[in-house]
């Protein structure tokens, strides 16, 4: 303690040293309790956000097949119109090839599977406690990547809003993670 106050070469009063040590111990204990309470609050907030994102992932999974059907129908209609203008008929084999290509481009099942896995990982990391800041940050980046791909693959106004909301929640989680050590 003498080095804390500067060593003047004089003996530090034993009672003063004991009081200072006790005061510092209490302050450190209060600080640790405040940080633990803040950590619990952050974890609770992130859990609610994760639940919301899991719900949204389910909505995307429900909406994706309808988007595929709408796009296939639109493709059939446009091809039919284009061919009719040139006096040709729509060849079913050619249409099927285009539909397969389009359906493959619109398929987000792998992305949704990975997204669900990442959201589950986030929940597990929060529950495990400890030094999870970097792992949380990395997993959030992976979530961003998957939801971004879903948004790019599925051109739909309704879904676009959901993707934007999803990204906003992920960003809020990243801000929270920055407060964790």
Q: And the CATH topology of the domain at 10-63 and 107-178?
A: Four Helix Bundle (Hemerythrin (Met), subunit A)
Beta-strand content:
under 5%
What's the CATH C level of the domain at 10-63 and 107-178?
Answer: Mainly Alpha
Q: Rounded to an integer, what's the Rg over CA atoms? A: 28 Å
Give the SSE string. Answer: HHHHHH
Number of helices: 6
Could you give the distance between the termini?
Answer: 28 Å
**Unreliably modeled segments:** none
For the largest beta-sheet, the strand count, sense and barrel status come to: none
Indicate the percent of residues in helices.
over 70%
What does this structure look like?
It is a single chain. With 181 residues, the chain is mostly helical. It has a domain at 10-63 and 107-178: Up-down Bundle (Four Helix Bundle (Hemerythrin (Met), subunit A)). The chain is 85% helix and 0% strand. It has helices at residues 2-5, 14-85, 92-106, 109-128, 133-153, 157-178. The longest helix has 72 residues, at 14-85. The radius of gyration is 28 Å and the shape is rod-shaped. The two termini are 28 Å apart.
């Amino acid at each position: 303690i003498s080095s804390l106050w500067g060593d003047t070469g004089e003996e530090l009063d034993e009672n003063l040293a004991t009081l200072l040590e006790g005061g510092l111990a209490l302050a450190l204990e209060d600080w640790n309790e405040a940080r633990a309470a803040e950590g619990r609050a952050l974890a609770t907030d992130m859990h609610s956000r994760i639940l919301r994102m899991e719900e949204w992932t389910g909505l995307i999974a429900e909406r994706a097949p309808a988007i595929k059907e709408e796009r296939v129908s639109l493709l059939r209609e446009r091809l039919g119109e284009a061919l009719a203008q040139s006096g040709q008929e729509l060849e079913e084999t050619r249409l099927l090839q285009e539909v397969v290509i389009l359906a493959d481009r619109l398929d987000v099942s792998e992305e949704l599977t990975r997204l669900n896995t990442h959201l589950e990982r986030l929940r597990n990391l929060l529950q495990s406690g400890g030094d999870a800041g970097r792992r949380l940050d990395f997993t959030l980046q992976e979530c961003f990547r998957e939801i971004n791909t879903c948004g790019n693959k599925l051109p739909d106004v309704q879904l676009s809003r959901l993707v934007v909301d999803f990204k906003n929640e992920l960003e809020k989680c990243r801000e929270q993670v920055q407060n964790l050590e």
